[in-house]
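Homework help board

Subject: predicted structure for assignment chain

Our instructor gave us this sequence and asked us to write out the predicted structure in token form, then describe one feature. I got the tokens but I'm not sure how to describe them. Can anyone check?
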Amino acid sequence: MSSPESKLIWMDGKLVPWDQANVHILTHTLHYGTGVFEGIRCYRTEKGSAVFRLRDHVNRLFNSAHILGYKIPYTREEVIDAIKTTIRENGLEECYIRPLAWLGTEGRGLNPIGISVHLAIAAWKWGTYLGAEALENGIKVMVSSFSRHHPNISLTKSKATGWYLNSVLAKQEAIKNGFDEAILLDTLGNVAEGSGENIFIVRNGAIKTPPLVSVLEGITRESVIRVARDSGIDVVETYFSRDEVYIADEVFFTGTAAELTPVCEVDRRKIGDGKRGPITEKLQETFFAAIQGKNGDYADWLDVV
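My token output:
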């Protein structure tokens, strides 16, 4: 499997060559999953390259670290500037951006208190996460055998590296069973989210999405809710079961990587007509116009590089 690269990665205040952006084998985060990260996208727009909801992503990065009990040694403005610098210095018009904060090597045991905090920012060209054709044709999904995090076991509002083992296991299970993606239920059996996406269902012209309990506060999720409500579509945040997904008229995922991707099949049951539905398509049209700078109603979402 080939991996995308760019020329430079920002690490602790300096731009270093991609193949020299290394950490020590005994870094605390490698052993115990104590890192926090973000996934951010930069799009080519009529005003030049622009980052989608940059400040909101940076705020969530800092919140994630705060939840885990440590402090990123830079200001939010410094991180915003570093992200823009990384994009510019790599000559990227469109890209995926990955800020990652991690703990250093001063401690060998579980106790993270007093261990140094580091920050890196990488950016590279990366197309649609689930495939460009999926945006129109939809994907096939299974309900995973793995449950989503309980909010008092994993602090679910932190986008922590360690939590994503749960996602990796669910994604791997889905792929090995011939599906594109997984839906995870919470510990009570309610639908929670995908392995790396929030989930929405459409029934009788209205939209439902799970509440933010065992679910990450998705920035694309929030954006799509705003687009839907601005379009006069009711959106309700409520629990629902897997069998309500089966009989939904439409199902779609949202996320920085997935953007807004329809689901055409769940557990080998066709959703609606087995293709992208009209509400999903309408939301896609408005959302993609917004992130490409073609809809002034959402100009506040874009931060020009």
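Reply (TA_rk): Your tokens look well-formed. For the description, you could write something like this. The chain has a mean pLDDT of 95. That's the kind of observation they're looking for.
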